[in-house]
């Protein structure tokens, strides 16, 4: 596959996995949790580097997953102590992210690990770090990891589709019929953390956040069917990845930033043109009724 092809495939995998998880985020009204985890994984990455003094390897993934789960646990703990949801997310998110930034500034030194890279990523470097797979050959490591994450996400969503649906729309009903709501919540947090971490190094926190929230929010405007919402959200993520790449090539600018911008353009189109919830359909409905 060509250099451009690997970049597009990797970005599309980010769009698919984040778009799928994003639907549950939107339905559970937990969009800010994505913002928190997409930033606090920086602390896990920095700590993993300080322990191993290596910038690549699965220890970075493990450290970031632990940081993501720690974020979720701390937020839930503060909420159980009476702190409001938005406040608990804000406190944990800013504190852990700030600790990561301070450690980079004071402990990392001359290593190629900086805040700009963490926020914006560098997807153009993805094709250069490869792994060898039997019968397949050399493929980018990020592409391999994101492929596994996508399979895990799809298996979890499809395998527990009914449980996700009930716990997202009516947790009280789910608990009354014996569905372990707390277990499902932390399973979801684990999926969110793993997906965020897998995409973090390649595309950075800004694009991860955009892909987690905006495609799902766009899909929500087009349909009320959960299954179709998953499909549309993943499709919007892939479309934004492809459109963003070619926009960046045309303007000679940040690829991840252009992909994030493309998700916003798709949302504005959905906000204006969706047949049921779009602004234009709402404006035209009174006129049609009057006729």
Automatic annotation (TrEMBL):
<feature type="transmembrane region" description="Helical">
    <location>
        <begin position="57"/>
        <end position="75"/>
    </location>
</feature>
<feature type="transmembrane region" description="Helical">
    <location>
        <begin position="228"/>
        <end position="248"/>
    </location>
</feature>
<feature type="transmembrane region" description="Helical">
    <location>
        <begin position="173"/>
        <end position="192"/>
    </location>
</feature>
<keyword id="KW-0813">Transport</keyword>
<dbReference type="Pfam" id="PF00950">
    <property type="entry name" value="ABC-3"/>
</dbReference>
<keyword id="KW-1003">Cell membrane</keyword>
<feature type="transmembrane region" description="Helical">
    <location>
        <begin position="198"/>
        <end position="221"/>
    </location>
</feature>
<keyword id="KW-0472">Membrane</keyword>
<keyword id="KW-0812">Transmembrane</keyword>
<feature type="transmembrane region" description="Helical">
    <location>
        <begin position="87"/>
        <end position="106"/>
    </location>
</feature>
<dbReference type="GO" id="GO:0043190">
    <property type="term" value="C:ATP-binding cassette (ABC) transporter complex"/>
</dbReference>
<feature type="transmembrane region" description="Helical">
    <location>
        <begin position="142"/>
        <end position="161"/>
    </location>
</feature>
<comment type="similarity">
    <text>Belongs to the ABC-3 integral membrane protein family.</text>
</comment>
<feature type="transmembrane region" description="Helical">
    <location>
        <begin position="34"/>
        <end position="51"/>
    </location>
</feature>
<dbReference type="GO" id="GO:0010043">
    <property type="term" value="P:response to zinc ion"/>
</dbReference>
<feature type="transmembrane region" description="Helical">
    <location>
        <begin position="254"/>
        <end position="273"/>
    </location>
</feature>
<feature type="transmembrane region" description="Helical">
    <location>
        <begin position="6"/>
        <end position="27"/>
    </location>
</feature>
<dbReference type="InterPro" id="IPR001626">
    <property type="entry name" value="ABC_TroCD"/>
</dbReference>
<keyword id="KW-1133">Transmembrane helix</keyword>
<dbReference type="InterPro" id="IPR037294">
    <property type="entry name" value="ABC_BtuC-like"/>
</dbReference>
<dbReference type="GO" id="GO:0055085">
    <property type="term" value="P:transmembrane transport"/>
</dbReference>
<protein>
    <submittedName>
        <fullName>Metal ABC transporter permease</fullName>
    </submittedName>
</protein>
């Amino acid at each position: 596959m060509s250099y451009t092809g690997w970049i597009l495939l990797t970005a599309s995998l980010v769009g698919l996995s984040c778009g799928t998880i994003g639907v549950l985020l939107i339905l559970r009204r937990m969009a800010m949790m994505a913002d928190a985890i997409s930033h606090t994984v920086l602390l896990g990455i920095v700590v993993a580097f300080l322990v191993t003094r290596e910038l690549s390897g699965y220890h970075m993934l493990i450290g970031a997953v632990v940081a993501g789960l720690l974020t979720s646990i701390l937020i839930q703990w503060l909420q159980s102590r009476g702190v409001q949801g938005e406040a608990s997310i804000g406190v944990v998110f800013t504190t852990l992210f700030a600790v990561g930034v301070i450690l980079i500034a004071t402990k990392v030194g001359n290593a190629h690990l900086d805040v700009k890279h963490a926020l914006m990523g560098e997807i153009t470097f993805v094709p250069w770090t490869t792994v060898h797979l039997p019968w397949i050959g050399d493929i980018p490591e990020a592409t391999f990891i994101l492929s596994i994450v996508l399979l895990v996400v799809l298996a979890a969503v499809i395998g527990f589709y009914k449980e996700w649906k009930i716990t997202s729309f009516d947790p009280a009903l789910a608990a009354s019929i014996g569905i372990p709501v707390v277990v499902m919540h932390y399973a979801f947090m684990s999926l969110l953390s793993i997906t965020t971490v897998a995409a973090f190094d390649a595309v950075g926190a800004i694009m991860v956040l955009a892909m987690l929230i905006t495609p799902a929010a766009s899909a929500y405007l087009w349909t009320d069917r959960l299954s179709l919402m998953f499909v549309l959200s993943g499709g919007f993520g892939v479309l934004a990845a492809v459109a963003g790449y070619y926009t960046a090539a045309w303007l000679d600018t940040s690829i991840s930033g252009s992909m994030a911008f493309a998700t916003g353009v798709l949302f504005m189109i959905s906000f204006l043109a969706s047949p049921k919830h779009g602004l234009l359909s709402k404006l035209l409905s009174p006129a049609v009724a009057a006729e």
